[in-house]
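>> received
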Amino acid sequence: MTNDNADSATNTGLPALLAYIQEVQNRAHRLAEALEAVNFMENQGGCDSGRYAVSMIAQDLAEEIAIKLDSINLPGATA
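>> returned
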C-alpha cells in the first residue's frame, strides 16, 4: 500500500519547509528561555549588566524569528 499523501508531500518540498519550521521553533524556544532569565534576574533585583545583555540577545532572536517567518523567506518562496 502506498501513501499518496506522503509522496506528494515529498514532491512539494514539504520536508524542507518542516525543517525550516523546526529551526524557527528552536529559536523561539531559546527566546522564551532568555526572557525567563531576564524575569528571574529582575525578580532577584540584581545583575543589571547581565539582564541588559540577555535582553539584547532576546531582541536579536526576536528579530531573527520575525525575518524567518516573513513569507518571502520561506523555503520555496519566490519574489
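>> Residues 4-73 form one domain.
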